[in-house]
Amino acid sequence: MALKNTKPKVLLIEDDPDQIHLYEIKFKLEGFDIISAEKGSLGIALAREQKPDVILLDLIMDEMGGLDVLRALKALEETRSIPVFLFTNLAKKELAEKGRDLGAAGFIIKADNEPSRVVEMVNKILGKIRS
Amino acid sequence: MIEFFAITGLINTIVAIALVLYVSAKSPKTTIYWVFVGLSLAFGTWSFGYWLWLSSTEYDQALFWSRILSLGSTLIPLFYLHWVTLLLGIAKKRWALLAFAYLLTIPFLIFGFDTLFVSGVAPVGTFLFWPQPGPLYHLYIIVAYIGFFGYGSWLLWKHYQKRRGQMRLRIKYIFSGIVLAVIGGFTNFPAWYGIPLSPYGNVVTPFFFIACAYAMVQYRLRDIRRVITFAFVHVLLGGAVTVAVAILSWHFIVPNLQPILQIGFIAGLSGIVYELLRHFLHKVTGAVTSAEIKKREDAVRDVAQKLPHIIDYKEVIDLIIDTIKERMQLERTGVLLRDGSKLSSHYKIARVSGFDEGNGIGLVRDNFLTQYLARTHKPLVKEELDLLIHQVKTEKERQGITSLKKHMTQIEAALCLPLIGKEGLIGIIVLGPKISGEAFTHEDLDLLRILSDQAAIAIENAQLYKEVQDFNQTLQKKVDEQTNEIAEHADHLEKLLSMRSEFLDVASHQLRTPVSVITGILSMVRDGDLEALDEREKKKFIDSAYQKGLKLNNIINDILRASEMDTATFTLPTVQDGQIEDIIKAVVEDKKLEAENKKLKLVYQLPETALPFLSLDQEFMTQALTNLVDNAIKYSGTGTITVGAKREDNHLLLYVKDKGIGIPEKDLPKLFRKFARAKNAKEMYTDGSGLGLFIVKQVVEAHGGMVWVESVEDEGSTFYVKLPIKGYIKKSRNK
Predict the structure, then answer these.
(1) Nearest CA distance, A31 vs chain B (angstrom)
(2) Is B516–A19 a contact, with Cβ atoms under 8 angstroms apart?
(3) Do A60 and B687 touch (CB under 8 A)?
(4) A17 touches B: beta carbon within 8 Å
(5) Residues B548-576 pLDDT 10s
(6) Which of B523, B541, B687 lies closest to A114 in CB terms?
(7) Taking CB atoms and an 8 Å limit, are B524 and A115 in contact across chains?
(8) Residue B117: its pLDDT value, please?
């Protein structure tokens, strides 16, 4: 029970079901709790409710884009401290800068980073927080 | 001393002959000419008699010539009166009076050689043979000199008061002559009544006739004040020289010579001395008339100094007009300028004052007047035309002058000055009469010509300057326009570039997404992550990688096709006559399974009549239709998808109808653009290329057709494609 509670929790906000499927399998295999939301608004609600240890946030989504979600997360007291990775295939320098300005922990381009590498990056930031 | 007076007689005779020759050369042979010739001959007869009478050494001889002399002097007042009435234009009205005058003169002529008129000759003063008046002589003085001469002069005076312009100046000239004639008369007649006064007036008498001739013949008179001053100085000095030379010669040199040699000697010597004094004389006349000349020179200098500094032609005109108005004291002044281009025949008012514009001064076009001014470059005085018209010889010339007068009357001009530029007549200065009613004199016209010449140059320069300025403005405008155009182009290019970069961004995103999934799954396979999964999950996992691979292929194809079509020179590679029905059937057959997998019905609605052949690129048209059917399947949850075609007039209408999610109205306009997706479409399906409808549009337009959509959100969409039947294919597509 205690061990179960120490499992780090990842929130994936992403609108492509194939990708959700892929990362859910990977993160579970690596010993993470993973929850996902297919819309930005849903992602914010989940973040407030579940208090994940880290958030992977897609940028290109309908209704509410990734940057808007990031802004909201950083504005809310209860989610502000959660590290957020921008998680996208849109490799634009301006977007990375914008994200950093808004308080993102990193900018991950999906196609350039294998799932294991993504897990590594998440682990790294979690280690930083814990130490 | 007597010889001196005899010589004046000889000189006067020569003057009389010269006058006859002068008017014969200058004047047409009208009545007034003949009457003036009569007057001159009468004067000549009188002078000739005078010369020989005073040269006489015997009684009989002296009596004879004194009677000849009297014949001349009898006729002078008669011809003078007649001449005055002709000059004033009232001869016909006074014909009775004139006839009476002629009749009255006859007895004097008849009794000219009778003792009733001249009873004899007797010594008076230093004169040995002065004629003695008979009873008729007294009557003759009263009738001829007080009657005819006085009446003629009174007529002149009366007309002087009511006439204006040239006639006024003519009368002035005659009056100045009359003054001299009266002076002459006062010295000539007293001796007849025993008063020993020598006829010094003989010297000035010819000037009366000269003045009359000048007034009659010249159509442009000189300023009389200057003439009188000039003549006065010359005559006075010339007379003084002659008298001095005569007296000196008489006493010291020539007493023993023949009279004719004496005259010759004195005349020659006087001439030489006079010539030597001429320089001095010029100075004197110059001094006397310099005030007047100075005023003119001031005006010219003033204008000449100011003009080069004025660059606005309106100011040039103001200066010229003000100067002329001030100098001449005119009732009206105006300037007309040729309108704009050299080709124009209109003259526009640049400035007028005093003219009634209603009388058409502003309506001058090229006419006889402007042509005349352009040809002669000379000022035109309306009053002079009246005189000229009597002097010209041919009917054609007469008509020309009449036309000139008509045109000048029309624009109320007393004087027209041409403004002559490099290209000819550039305008006209139009002047009204002088306020004083005086005529424009020779000197006035000289001044006006100088002013108008300067004005023409200045106006032309100012116009050129204005042209340059206008040109600069036009140029500036052009530069501005082109700068704007360039800026617009730059904007457009920037937009294109940003579109291009956006295309790359979106395209790379679309490509990376499946790639990331495929490589992600493969890396997990490689790392043995799949060992933990059961067989069913493994299969599903690997299949999703395979599906992403297929999509990646489609996306790559779409991107390549779209970028191929997104050029200005895109043309369909292989166009052939074909049946659209074959393509529809093939696509429907191909997509049937996919539709059925989604529980959808895909049907081809057979046309009522056979479909015509079209010019088609089979491959591209298949692609376009496939994209439309793909979309219908993707965005439909339930229902039937209907594909059909029918003939309408000269075109074929193809449609793909679904009962899907429809398209929000605000998304309709951008639907056929690259990477455009309706809002509700994104929620359902995001891993297509975003280029399907763009490709449809490009293909249809390359076939010379058009594509559009009718849709209601949540109810479904119908895409229509209209294609021309008669093989029209655009060779190149216009953006």
Answers:
(1) 12
(2) yes
(3) no
(4) no
(5) 898 888 888 888 888 888 776 778 888 88
(6) B523
(7) yes
(8) 84
Q: Which residue of A has its CA nearest to B547?
A: A18
- Tell me the whole-structure pTM to 2 decimals: 0.51
Exposure string of B493-505, with b = 16+ CB inside 10 Å and e = fewer, is eeeeeeeeeebee
Q: What is the pLDDT of residues B661-678, one digit of tens each?
A: 888 888 787 788 777 666
Q: Which residues of A touch B524 (CB under 8 A)?
A: 22, 25-26, 115-116
Query: Per the CB < 8 Å rule, is B505 touching A29?
Result: no
Query: Looking at the predicted structure, is the pLDDT value of residue B307 above 60?
Result: yes
Nearest to A29 among B520, B532, B544 (CB): B532
**ipTM of the shown complex:** 0.89
CA angle in degrees (0–180, nearest 5) for A21-A22-A27: 100
Q: Which of B417, B445, B442 is nearest to B431 (CA)?
A: B417
Give residue A2's pLDDT. 41
Put simply, whether B543 touches A (Cβ < 8 Å) is: no
Residue pair B418/B452 in contact (Cβ under 8 Å)? The answer is: yes
Burial status of residue B322 (CB atoms within 10 A of its CB: 0-12, 13-18, 19 or more)? middle
What 3-state DSSP class applies to B614?
A: strand
**Closest in A16, A91, A114 to B687, CB measured:** A16
Provide CB contacts within 8 A for B436, sequence distance 6+: B329
Task: List, as ranges, residues 546-605 from B with C-beta within 8 Å of A.
Answer: 547-548
A18 touches B at CB < 8 Å = yes
Set of chain B residues whose Cβ sits within 8 Å of the Cβ of A92: 505
CA distance A48 to chain B (A): 24
Q: Tokens 């300028």 belong to which residue?
A: B337
How far apart, in whole angstroms, are the C-alpha atoms of residue B205 and residue B46? 11
- The reply to whether residue A22 touches residue B521, judged by beta carbons under 8 angstroms, is yes
3-state secondary structure at position A9: strand
Distance from CA of B693 to the nearest CA of A (A): 20
Task: List B residues 508-527 in contact with A (Cβ-Cβ < 8 A).
Answer: 508-509, 512-513, 515-517, 519-521, 523-524, 527
What would the pLDDT profile of B266-297 be if each residue is shown by its tens digit? 778 777 877 777 776 666 555 555 566 677 77
d(CA B625, CA B629): 6
Q: Per DSSP, what are the bridge partners of residue B381?
A: B415
- Structure-token match 């350039």, residue found: A112
Given pLDDT bands bounded at 50, 70 and 90, which one contains residue B254?
Answer: low
Determine contact: B498 vs chain A, CB below 8 A: no
d(C-alpha B402, C-alpha B388), whole Å: 10
Q: Name the more confident of B725 and B225.
A: B725
Determine, for residues B513 and A16 on separate chains, whether the beta-carbon distance falls below 8 Å: yes
**Lookup: tokens for B478:** 């052009």
d(CA B470, CA B481): 16
- Read off the pLDDT of each residue in B470-481 and give the average, rounded to a whole number: 91
Q: What is the pLDDT of residue B288?
A: 53
How much is the average pLDDT of B413-434? 86
- The residue ranking higher by pLDDT, B439 or A35, is A35
Nearest to A12 by CA among A100, A124, A131, A110: A110
Q: In this complex, do B520 and A21 lie within 8 Å of one another by their Cβ atoms?
A: no
Q: Which of B677, B595, B682, B679 is nearest to B643 (CA)?
A: B595
pLDDT tens digits, one per residue of B489-504 = 988 888 888 777 777 7
At B277 the pLDDT is 73
Give chain B's count of helices (H) and strands (E): 20, 14
pLDDT of residue B729: 47
Which of B164-178, B247-261, B427-441, B599-613 is the least confident region?
A: B247-261
Collapse the DSSP code of B487 into the 3-class scheme (helix H, G, I; strand E, B; otherwise coil) and give the result.
helix
Q: How far does Cα B617 stand from its chain's mean position? A: 67
Hey, are the CB atoms on A111 and B516 less than 8 Å from each other?
yes
